Amino acid sequence: MDGFFWGIAIFLLVNAFACLYRAYAGPTVVDRVLAVNIIVTKTLVVLVLLAMVFGRRMLLDVALVYGLLNFVLTIAAGRFLETGKLTGDWS
Amino acid sequence: MSTTEATVSALTIVFAVIGTLFFLVGTIGVLRLPDFFCRTHAATKCDTVGAGSLLLALAIYNGPDVSTLKIVVLAGLVLLSSPTAGHAIARAAYRTGFRPWVDDKERERA
Hints:
- The complex is a heterodimer.
- Chain A is an all-alpha fold.
- Chain A has one domain.
- Chain A contains three helices and no strands.
- Chain A has helices at 2-25, 29-54, 58-83.
- In chain A, helix 1 packs antiparallel against helix 2 and helix 2 packs antiparallel against helix 3 (58-83).
- In chain B, helix 1 (3-32) packs antiparallel against helix 2 and helix 2 (36-62) runs antiparallel to helix 3 (66-95).
- The longest helix of chain B is centred in the first third of the chain and has 30 residues, at 3-32.
- Chain B starts with a helix and ends with a helix.
- The interface between A and B is large, with 42 and 44 residues.
């Protein structure tokens, strides 16, 4: 089963690099934020796959923090685009 | 190989392949669709289902263990946060003046 997991991990990395093109070329800022969001989700799954293959369960905690960071990043970017500031009330 | 092991392997492979296919569809959608809102549609939906299915496959493969619980929590986090993030970023785009892309034929008709 390890070879199967390696195959999925490599396939997801190729997909992530394909999405990197959208982050590079994407005509607007929101396109770039969306592309980074997708890349981070794929990296999270790759981290869990590597935790399985190498037998290092510590990587699961890393993946958890990575997922939370992804969420906070997207929400903060959306809020900054919408209101123009990161603190204070919504207006 | 006992029946239980065979079932676990089969379920793992089926869910992992479904998740990988959804990721592929999401990537193609992000690269090919014409407009930010179309790309959000492709990306969030496929990312949610793809990551959820792959993490479910890994949780099934791992068996009863503490780390399985962690993987389930991670899947729940992805299932909750990915649509929310997609909604937030699409709302921010709409409020800052982006409008959905319209086909030329539809524009003539309107």
